[in-house]
Amino acid sequence: MNPSIIRHSITLTILVILSLSGAIAAEAEAAAATAASFDWRAFLAPFHTVTLHLPIGFVTIAVILEVYALFRPSEALRRALTLILWVSGISAVVVTLLGLFRAAGGGYEEEMLRHHEFYGIAVAFATMLIALVHVIAYRRGEVRSRFMVGIYRLMLLGDMVLLTIAGHGGGNLTHGSKYLIEGAPEWAKKWLAEHPEVQPEATTPGAASDSPGQVYASRIRPIFEKKCYSCHGPEKQKGDYRMDTVEGLFQAGESELDPIVANKPLESYLVELITLPREDDAVMPPDGKEALTGDEILAVMQWIWDGAKTE
Question: Average pLDDT, stretch 273-282?
Fold first, then answer.
């Protein structure tokens, strides 16, 4: 074979190998950069909602079994309680970490968020400590220290109180501070709510006797309060957008798109979001929350068309 052809073949082979090596190296660097830029906290944060019921359930089971053990003590029951308490503590720690990840995403009222974080951390610490005290108080189902047994039972009861407060705080952050009494009778609302006055029912949209400002107060604001305030109200502002104040209602959030453009409903980002198909990831309210009805969407669009006046 011609030596020149051999040399050219070898040279070409080397160039191909070098090109492939460079491509592989570049692909590896791109993959590493993507992995490095991936936000694990943002990915894990939503799992707080999925897992938060675990410590609540386990601690509740522990309380029930502890009451049962007062009347029918046994070594097997005590071993089961030991396992349940440790699982309770570990799950509480995991839920708390996921909650801190979720809080880092913002969109919540700061004072209420700090309150919820404090009680969540307290639950995680207390539940782990209770599991440890239980081990000290009992040995093979027998009481090792009556004093520690009393401490353990008081702590278990206190943990239930902490869980209740933390859970209620989380509900306030997610659904608003009045979510427990939204469906209550009027007399119950007046007795329980800090401000007993009740908003009047919305009137017929676009009623002839209503001025544009009255339409907002009587029809549009109640729609926003019912369907939107839980995520964009005084206690939570997803996407840095707030709807319970006039200033916030017209101010762009993270999207930097005008939510409401007076006289132009089709150019208003709010209208775009509420009219998306329910299966769209960007639809508002999001999947799992009550959507605006057709009449409500038309009322909002008509209000914007008429100038989006609030007074």
Answer: 84
**H/E run at residue 143:** strand 142-143
**What pLDDT does 106 receive?**
67
SS3 of residue 66 by DSSP: helix
Rounded Cα gap, residues 243 and 233, in angstroms: 6
Which token pair is 34? 């993507």
Angle in degrees, CA 95, 283, 226, rounded to 5: 75
Q: Which residue has the higher pLDDT, 164 or 180?
A: 164
Q: Do the Cβ atoms of 80 and 65 come closer than 8 Å?
A: yes
Any idea what DSSP says for residue 237? B
pTM, 2 dp: 0.58
Q: Where are the alpha helices (DSSP H) in 108-145?
A: 110-137
DSSP string, 178-192: TGGGTTS-HHHHHHH
Q: Which residues on neighbouring strands pair with residue 232, listed in sequence order?
A: 237
